[in-house]
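Quick sanity check, CBS domain-containing protein:
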Amino acid sequence: MRIFVARLAGTAVFDPSGDQIGRVRDVVIGMPASGPPPVHGMVIEMMPRRRVFLPITRVLSIEPGAVIFSGKINMRRFEQRVTEVLAIAELLDLVVEVNDERGSVLDLAMEEVRPSEWRITKVAVLKERGTSGPAVGTRRRRSGRGIFGLGRRARGETVIVDWGEVRGFEATQRDQGVANLLASYEKLRAADLANALHALPYRRRGQVVAALDDERLADVLEEMPERDRIEILGGLGSERAALVLAAMNPDDATDLLQDLPPERAEALLALMTPQEAAPVRRLLTYGERTAGGMMTTDPVILPPDATIADALAQIRQEEVSPAVAAQVYVTRSPTETPTGTYLGVAHFQRLLRDPPSTLLGAVVDPTIDPIKPELSLAGVTFYLATYNLVAAPVVDEIGRLVGAVTVDDVLDHLLPEDWRERAGDGVVDAG
């Protein structure tokens, strides 16, 4: 049986009893001096965002949409050995030669050569038109833009050849492409892509960051550990760094700027448009562990004469997070923060119970008092727990809505700073 490794990315992993324990993120192979490389195993991502190693000898079967294993998985975080290569992260898009023609690696195929022994036997290569000769390591030229801000793939002939017919896997290529690597990441949520970037070798991480568009990179930075996002932002030019910050939620951009030297933060704010910088500057005036410092300045806000149908149309937008979509804030005009007079909140469940033509002013919950920007983290936590809420309205001293604190913002500040990187060690026993 022949399995193409890029197609394994994201495949669910099950124990023999049928319980899903994670998803495949990469395939670990050796790189011998000669002959097809042996497959050592798979990198499996388990909750909470922990990457562990599944030896290939524990894999019972590989089926469409499922990898089934037996035995035990050591829960120690996966650490790549110097003799190992990550097939998806490091070999896809590598510029190689087949019969003196240049091309790039589209995929690699593994086959079981004997029971529980797998090797990389085939390579799918996209050969470039009109190229030949020994220019391995040269980046192919791209044009146009794709969903990741990448150029469209170069046209050419796709061939599947034996591993031994390909030259160039031993080369270190500074300008290695990322189109096929990003294609394997295309369906990942931002949090999962952040974890994937964290696990990449430094050079490949930089290449992926350069290829992501600003909005996708902004989403990913919001989910990364502090040191990773500072490192990535520091590697961007000032103009692009400002564009990425502008694409982030203002509260997340504020958190990131607070981690930078003040002069660097001010320089980036100066490169943003006044409209983009204004909410971030406002958030920077509040203490980091207060309602004002944690809140988003862009909740769903509508006037009292808007209808339930209008509210449902707003909260069903894909970019609105579940916590923000849980309730609609009703204010007098203007409805951009800081708003006109705050009137109250309309809960999502209430919106579902009343006719779509009902005015929001008629379904406002009058029992929920707003909080002040100066309220401490402990106070916000107590407020949300007391009223069983996932978000809280934040109102200034003259009664204007200035933002909303969501439960995910509170959790970010309650958990240890390195919570995205921490998880307990242990063993999963599949019997």
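Posting the structure with no commentary besides this: The chain has four domains: 2-80, 89-182, 213-285, 301-414.
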